[in-house]
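Incident review: delayed structure delivery

Summary: a single-chain prediction request sat in the queue longer than the usual turnaround. Root cause was a stuck worker, restarted by the on-call engineer. No data loss occurred. The affected request and its eventual output are reproduced below so the record is complete for anyone auditing the incident later.

Affected input:
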Amino acid sequence: MASSMICGVAMLASTQALAQTATEEVSEVVVTGTRIPSPNLESVSPVTAVTAAEIKATGVTRVEDMINSLPQAFAAQGSALSNGSTGTATISLRGLGATRTQVLIDGRRLMPGTPNTLGGALAADINFIPSALIQRVDVLTGGASAVYGADAVGGVVNFIMMRNFEGVRVDAQYGIYQHDNGNDVAGAVSAARARASTKEFFNLPKDNVRDGESSQVTLVMGVNSPDGKGNVTAYAGYRHVEPILQGNRDFSACTLNSGADFLTAGCGGSGTAFPARVGSFIVDFNGGSAFIPRVASRDIYNFGPSNYFQRPDDRYVLGAFAEYEVTEWAKAYMDVMFMDDTSTYQIAPGGVFAGTFSINCANPFLSAAQRGQLTATAASGGGTCASNPAGTFTGIVARRNIEGGGRQGRTQHQQYRYVVGVKGDLNDNWSYDFAMQYGRVSFNQVQTGFFRTSAIRQALNVVSTPTGPQCADPSGGCVPYNIFSLGGVTRAALDFLETPSTQNGNLFERIVNFNIGGDLTEYGVKTPWANDGVGVSIGAEYRREQLDYAADFISSSGDLAGSGGANPPVNGSFDVYEVFAETRIPLVQDAPFAKSLTAELAFRYSDYSTVGTTETYKIAGDWEPVDGVRVRGGYNRAVRAPHILELYSPRNVTLDGTRDPCAGLTAANPLVARCAALFKLTTAQVLAIEANPAAQYNGLIGGNPNLDPEIADTYTVGVVLQPSFLPGLNVSLDYFDITVKGFLGGYGADNIIDRCVQNQDASFCALVRRDAQGSLWLSPQGYVEDTTFNTGKLATTGVDINVGYRTDLDSLGMEGMGSLSGNFVGTWLDTLKFATLPGDPLTDCAGKFGTVCSATAGLTSPNPEWRHKARLTWATPLEYGEWLKDLSVSLQWRYFSSVDLDNPAGAASDLKLASRSYFDLTASWTVRDNLNFRAGVNNVFDKDPPLTGQGNCPTGPCNGNTWPQVYDAFGRYLFIGLTADF
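Output delivered after worker restart:
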């Protein structure tokens, strides 16, 4: 394993978890954090490494699941998101956002993963990386921007791939979730069913469920050239994942309200329900001919159960790594990688989402009683529809399309990555590397189950004809939509209203890089107190990124009801020219209290076509006073230029916020007078503002071509201990302090309206635009302006702890009992602060979650103050001929500390997410030397996740009343795998 060659920090988390066979060879060692040839293979910057053995021990088929288990990683895009999913999997180190985390493959940048404009973030998609080919994963904090790219603000994740493999390998794995439903909140579902107008939408799942099956198979083939100077390692793989519905877990079988407790608060839902709402009435759910009064707490739709908890996915990967030594000083190499990934999101059925619509009073589907209840507009003559059949009713109309099923988006990404280069040693002191890289991502999405708003308006305006009811405007094949009686909707009407929409896009990345590194010892360039000379690396790089995205007219015009808003086209590009240099200076060696004292310096100059020139640099040092003790520290300046979407995305109204303090107020509430004054409304108008039962409100989002780069400063200091009195023990503690100034993002719709209403700040109130009904959700004319700016700052501090230990049990007096190895990776999050505007007081989100701390300034998850994972492995001596060898048993403990709501005055049900401990058990054994089996159970005790009511559950990262990208939400995961070498 490559990790066995790395001293220092990389050893701390890379203790081999399970015994396994391997036929690959390692041609060179990659040290993440520097391009300088390193004599002692130690990184000055803090690095956490995860080996291939540990990846296999986790039993996961998705790389994202392995990365998310690391304490340094916070939830981002992934398989457990549905509403708001881009179809990708991204990494957010330190909670600073996926766009501030640089992903590398063997030290080279991985292109952004999608041109999908949803979410406005461009970050690498780690679905692209075949897990069976991963040899090691290095996670580095600090010291990376000047080396790998100016935008490595939160750090770098470097995937080291298996190369120079010889032979044939088949790696296969199967997994399934099993869960015993028994959560107390099931009582809320039963109570909601008892009082609901439509009981069929509140159902509990069966007690024992098995679902979410996943399978993966990867073929690896490698061959050396006949002269021994080259190798080609090729791979092909397929992964299939079955969906999990929220309705299959009792704790997500309804959308929970926030309140005193979940049982008391009960189930919430959407005001776009069934039967239809017309004004202040609904269609009688008992089949009566007259409307009945709408009761907001009763007449809701339970939209949660049909949402995907885990999206279905099919992924194909294909690629090869090749190299050949042309001469002693030139080795040509090439990487070819391809992925075709199709993932489908599903959310609740669409329909007529609550908004203002007109219905002609002569509509033949209206009963006589219903006509007598509807009021015609003054402009159409007034009176009731019964007394004025030529009139028009205009008001709120809503109906859930229960006949049509869930809304879906089939999302396909095809990704290509080519690297062609030549590298070699010019002499004993100098080496070089020249490479050209090309990456392309093609994106296609087809959305189904959505109505067209224009078609709804057309299909509600119905007249009588000799042949029966017909649309007043029959163009386009209009079919009348009868929402006024139970069972009135026809398949023909749905075929007219439901219109598939498509979105397509492409993203291109081109890179040319050259660097040369050398050891200046032979030239006498060294200090008088050191044996080794100065090491240097210099180079230059050119990078161009280009994005184009376009939706069809239906989607781009905003005519697709329930899609969250219009999808306007985006087209943009940028170029950057960079030069960089790095040096390592041994200052003192083999002196008293200074076995080694080394300094590292790095500098990168960048010239962007969009924002001009930027500079990044690094100053770091490493002091080893005696054997077994190292002290290290550094300062790194990073600069992140705005990406294409931040610069060029058109402004667009879409779902953005979770609340409106002025909605749903009673006359006694003191906010009534304040809201009336702030928004120039009458008291009656304020009292008429409806709250959205689904807690979803509009925001105007978009890019800004006048943005400046973000500037980040990172400080790290740490100690590494490898005591001689306890061989096999490695301990490191590293403190980090990262501050990002001029943070690129929106202020946050919730933050804006809170600042307006609570602080009565006129500048924020000017960003709140209410529609004619005073609403921020009933129409696109009501929204909070939340476009991209250089806002305040984001800062985090904390401590990483890594411990690794291995010992033969013989040394403990237990002869013939094998060996024990263990590793521990933990992070204490001291602070995670942000300020919306320069000069604002900092809000600390460490140990907190909610609509501020999990949905503002790039934060997308709960932020536990303490997280760790610890694994203990016993390599047993048990054998049975050729049928049982190298049996290892491994136990892992994953822990998340409790998290408090960011609003102490919030609902009692949501005030705390309790701590969680998950235990995983894995076994591995070898048969006939070439077959390595593994089997295990993750979340052995089937621990339910902590729950959040919808009042503090931001759409996207909070899914199914919990945070499934953070906590184990699906239950117990059972897996079995095989690696066969031939």
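Verification: The chain has 15 helices and 48 strands.
Action items: add queue-age alerting; document worker restart procedure.
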